[in-house]
Amino acid sequence: MLSARDSATPLSTTALQEIARVENEIERIEQESIDRLTSPPENQVQQIELLGKLLLFDKELSVNRNEACAFCHMPEAGFAGPVSEINRTTGSYPGSVRTRFSERIPQTHSYAPLSPVLHYDDLKDDLVGGNFWDMRATGRRLGNPAAEQAEGPPTNPVEMGLADFSCAVYRASSRPYRTLFERVWGPQAFEVAWPANTAAVCDSPGPPAADDPLPVHLTPADRGRAAATFDQMAQSIASYEASHEVSPFSSKYDAVQAGKAQFTALEQQGYDVFRGKAKCNLCHRDGGPGEEPMFTDYTASNIGTPANPDLPYYAEGKPDDRGYVANRSGAAFVDFGVGGFLADGHPLSQPSAVDARWKPLAPQNRGHFKVPTLRNVDKRPSADFVKAYGHNGYFKSLKQIVHFYNTRDVLPRCSARGTGEGTACWPAPETTDNLNKSKVGNLQLSNEEEDALVAFLQTLTDGFHPAERK
Predict the structure, then answer these.
(1) Which among 285, 357, 371, 433 is placed 20 to 30 Å from 278, CA to CA?
(2) Is pLDDT above 60 for 470?
(3) Rounded to 10 degrees, what is the CA torsion of 226, 232, 235, 239?
């Protein structure tokens, strides 16, 4: 919950009430999972999945013990941002230090482990794979981008905020799932000689001082053991994300492909537009020879998304009450996505090293953001729940982003929050570097075809039961 020292947060009373609801749901799910420890599965794969779920819903792994990974990735929202009012307003989510916000919105955890390790595809002349909007969780070290993604938030100052990755291991060593962890990964997992001041270090928000980047002062052997355990924590989370509970392929679309349901006339029209006139499937691949229908080609693109002026990140250009500056560019900040990662790394959290051979690719990737899967793109707990779209949450509905794809280059320019914005005009792109002009901007769809396309996209929501729905 919000504390007195977080009084400067831009969150509204409505957002805080929703946050409280989400926190209560996280605690309920966590307790339900802890209860399963009395009779854990015998199968090792299921043990790892349970362990990953416990880690994902454990708020004790954040610096202020108030933010689980799941805070930005809840089931009812397709394992994406679960707070409607945040999605509608700030777009990005507060971290464990509630006055700190990142520059991007959460991506879905559903189907994330199916992304390939980041690599350069000579035939596509493009980078393919990885995780995060900027692909910086490459998967090159652990062999799984989702696992490397799980290692980013714990030490990101604007997310879970720990000063040292070993703090996550230290906190996990006293949690109820320790016995299961040691059963799965071995008794050596937490055999670390922790310095006397570890608790104090781990209670202090990151980032660490530049001259002391690993403030938990471990011996080389203990540092290596903690690093291995941190990797295993991340691999457990990725295993849970790959489970049927998170990535079930249970949408109406899947039922139709299996011959167990039929599209409505409007949904079929939308699918025809998706594959035909709009050519959405050129990037949001719906399957081909040897391909699962993942509705992404795992590349990145600049679709010309306008800057989102409501991001609190723009106001984080001055030291906070702990002396931390999240955004040294202030109001002039421009998010260059994949190009920024390749050129400079990520300023807040970089779980994977940049392959030096890819650095020359930075200019041609400026402004590129990963093509997201469209699975669960409209999963929401209620019809009035607002979801945000685009790397910065600029778009607030599927209809709006479809309209943008259709009319970006047709409608006139207007200022942000100007009259007619989003329907009759669009602000300029955040950056025009490497703007996608061949697949976005003038699809020549009618309003009815836009609506049909939205109807089709809604069939990609998991949890469809043929016997209960038409």
Answers:
(1) 433
(2) no
(3) -150
What is the Cα–Cα distance from 272 to 308, expressed in whole angstroms?
32
> pTM for this structure?
0.95
Triad 371, 134, 87: Cα angle to 5°: 70
Q: How many residues does the chain have?
A: 470
- Could you give the CA distance from residue 386 to residue 356 in angstroms, rounded to a whole number? 40
- As a three-state string, the secondary structure of 137-205 is ECCCCCCCHHHHHHCCHHHCCCCCCCCCHHHHHHHHCCCCCHHHHHHHHCHHHHCCCCCCCHHHHHCCC
**Three-point CA angle 405, 420, 303, nearest 5°:** 20
Query: Distance (Å, rounded) from C-alpha 454 to C-alpha 14?
Result: 28
3-state secondary structure of 108: coil
Output the average pLDDT for the chain: 95
For residue 123, how many C-alpha atoms fall within 13 Å in the half-sphere facing its CB? Answer: 0
Q: From CA 26, how far away is CA 195, in angstroms rounded? A: 31
Output the six-digit token pair for 231: 């990797």
Distance CA 115, CA 142 (A): 13
Residue 302 sits at φ, ψ, to 5 deg, of -105, 105
135 conformational bin, left if phi > 0, alpha if psi -120 to 50, beta if neither: left
Is the pLDDT at 290 greater than 90? The verdict is no
Half-sphere exposure of 107 (CA within 13 A, CB side): 26
pLDDT digits (tens, 9 = 90+) for 198-234: 999 999 999 999 999 999 999 999 999 999 999 999 9
Number of helices followed by number of strands (H, E) in the chain: 14, 4
Q: Could you tell me the domains of the chain?
A: 4-241 (1.10.760.10)
Residue 231, C-beta contacts closer than 8 angstroms, at least 6 positions apart = 142, 147, 151
* Residues β-bridged to residue 80: 74
Helix (H, G, I), strand (E, B) or coil at 302: strand
DSSP 443-465: ----HHHHHHHHHHHGGG-B---
| C-beta separation of 164 from 202 below 8 A | yes
